[in-house]
Specification:
By secondary structure, the protein is mainly beta. Helix content is 0%, strand content 48%. Strands 2, 4, 5, 6, 9, 10 and 11 form a 7-stranded mixed β-sheet that branches. Strands 1-3-8-7 form a 4-stranded antiparallel β-sheet, with no helix packed on it. It is globular and about 40 Å long.
Length: 124
């Protein structure tokens, strides 16, 4: 049984930083692509970043490149999202996702497993 648990979300002031974590179990983590998405009420989940399995590289949403960094620790079965220079428009529930693909998609429907989400709120 695959389990994915996000943590690290909280209220932060604009300009601040946060690091989210997603601990997984039940899947061959090092070979899986991992991603972060975010969602605000009434909208689809928005792609943030992905880390390809076997440390084959990363991809980012163009609008977030330079402020957000995805990383992974295969020994801990954990993927991270470092978020810097946060803005009020970054407020959302952040989800981690996993899939066996080596070509991660920016579309939420192509990801097989999801965590329950962690709330990030950025105040102005």
């Amino acid at each position: 049984q695959v389990q994915m648990v996000e943590s690290g979300g909280r209220l932060v002031q604009a300009g601040g930083s946060l690091k989210l974590s997603c601990v997984t179990s039940g899947l061959p983590f090092s070979t899986y692509s991992m991603a972060w998405f975010r969602q605000v009420p009434g909208q689809d989940r928005e792609f943030v970043a992905a880390s390809k399995g076997r440390d084959a590289g990363t991809i980012y949403a163009d609008s977030l490149k330079g402020r957000f960094t995805i990383s992974r620790d295969n020994a801990k079965n954990t993927v991270y999202l470092q978020m810097n220079s946060l803005k009020p428009e970054d407020t959302a529930v952040y989800y981690c996702a996993a899939d066996s693909t080596m070509w991660p998609s920016t579309a939420m429907y192509n990801w097989s497993y999801w965590g329950q989400g962690t709330q990030v709120t950025v105040s102005s």
